[in-house]
Amino acid sequence: MESIWSQTCKIEGRAPLSGDIKTEIAVIGAGMAGVLIASALQEAGKRVVLLEANRIASGQTRNTTAKLTSQHGMIYKKLADTLGMDLARQYAAANEAALGEYRRLIAQRNIDCDFEEQDACLYGDNAELLRVEAEYADALGLPARYIKTTALPFPTAGAVQFERQAQLHPLKFLRAVAEPLTIYEYTRVQEVNEHRLVTERGTVTAEKIVFACHYPFVNFPGLYFARMHQERSYVLALENAPHIDGMWVFADGAAQPYSFRTWNGLLLLGGGGHRCGENREGGRYELLRSKAREWFPQSREAAHWSAQDCVTADGVPFIGQYAASCPDWFVATGFQKWGMTTSMVAAMLLRDAVCGKENPWTKLFDPRRFDTETIPGILKEGGKAVKGLAKRLFQIPAEAAKDLAPGQGGAVDLDGEKVGVYKDEDGKIYPVELRCPHLGCQLEWNPDEKSWDCPCHGSRFDKYGDLISGPAQTGI
Ligand code: FES
């Protein structure tokens, strides 16, 4: 189902690339990150083109909950402990600056995008941990404090509140920012060779290239596949639910792990998160529906949708030079669940990097970091990937296709061959090869989205095997 953003804002189509062109900067991906980066570079006087495999904002941007905040879960004590107070302060400052940049753009360009200041609140069940997190955030210069009571319909031990954060309609905002940019839709980049991008519709030769396509698809150099995985989460939009002031998210370990924000009389209830490719049983939307019935019995579901986020091993996005061997390639990825705000951080940081200017946040977000903090995370990612591969090669399917119930999918033995099968409500069978075309892991059926999802790096495919999202570049 379409998100409420897609239902309420249409973005005018752009023509695909046709032929070969040259430019100063090519940005791959016209979601929030790509559009903001291109806009910042154009403002800085650069000639920029954007290449989008599908439609503008057709990836995660249309499915976000669109919170603009420097509050990113229980991170500030952790960042201070692992990276030190200076880098933790920079993380806070970068995200507050991003909020300021949203305000500037919206005011300067008079963008009508339902921008609304709201407090961001992180609730949980351990008052002491919340209090300590608030103290760290405050010491790092953030507008943070611990509050004892919350506006939520279940008991908590309080929350960390950040004042004067914000929310908006992501597509209304993006449509306005994208308007003066040169964007080629339905132009998937298939290969990048130094300064040349190859698409089905022509080539682009660029002095500098920015990968802003959610998950970078060039595996070597960069090794992003070994350093990130993807997580999925689900949202219901509820009519006739009580108004809840503020934007609420849960702290680690909370008994009720959900998120809340409002838009135009609707309450958005988020949750049911899992690593991509690990939802064999399904029931994520049903979980949210049961919570809606429990907490807001008068409410009605107006829409439901889901989104996917890239998660880095150390919890800090990768924004900067793509790899040591590629001085003219840049990347912005690994935004966790905070892509609206960190997309703007990426725009400011990469504008400076591409223009050869110093930026105080370069070291913090440097994608080339491989240190003792990240190595355990990398090994964990590698372990998951190996598990995915081993499963494809050795596990014997438990069910035969005929035993699948209508509406079900899974790995089955079909005429002696192990394949993925979805059986629709009429009993029609859709077989696919189970090997992910990215790096070969075994795909898993996601019954909530009726898609084949990869547990290794999060590529997704529909029931026909057509690509929904990468890092894979082709269908199954
Ligand atoms: Fe990398 Fe599937 S997404 S192997």
The CATH architecture of the largest domain comes to 3-Layer(bba) Sandwich
Radius of gyration, taken over Cα atoms and rounded to an integer in Å:
22 Å
What's the N-to-C terminus distance? 23 Å
- Here the CATH topology of the largest domain equals FAD/NAD(P)-binding domain
Describe the biggest sheet?
8 strands, mixed
β-strand amount: 25-35%
Any idea what the CATH superfamily of the largest domain is called? Answer: FAD/NAD(P)-binding domain
In round numbers, the mean pLDDT is 93
From the spread of the alpha carbons, the general shape counts as globular
pLDDT under 50 segments (min length 5)?
A: none
Number of strands: 25
Are any ligands bound, and if so which?
FE2/S2 (inorganic) cluster
The tally of helices reads 10
Give a quick precis of the structure.
The protein is α+β, with helices and mostly antiparallel strands. The protein has helices at 4-8, 32-43, 76-83, 85-108, 127-139, 170-178, 284-295, 339-354, 362-365, 375-394; strands at 21-28, 48-51, 67-68, 116-123, 144-147, 159-167, 182-184, 189-193, 196-199, 202-211, 228-239, 247-250, 258-263, 266-275, 300-312, 318-323, 326-333, 399-400, 409-414, 417-423, 429-432, 444-446, 451-453, 460-461, 467-469.
